[in-house]
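INFO  loader      accepted 1 record
INFO  loader      residues=79
INFO  predictor   begin
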Amino acid sequence: MKPSFAKILTLATWLLIIISLFNVLPASLTTGLQYLGIFLLIAHLAEYIIFRKTIARKPEQPLLAFLLTIIFGVFYWKY
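INFO  predictor   done
INFO  writer      dumping tokens
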């Protein structure tokens, strides 16, 4: 899995979402980031369920493929 701008941006987004859980950001930003985190988690879980056969063809172990799909979504399994 090679790094790309999209993957780096996705990691930065998840990092902000995790930081927002500690309430160190302004309240309006914290709430928005937490909603974004819930949305991304649900969307990536649905993505894994829908595309599990395609994801299963990746060389990584199944658990690692699942985790990478949850983190990166389409940027993991398609690119």
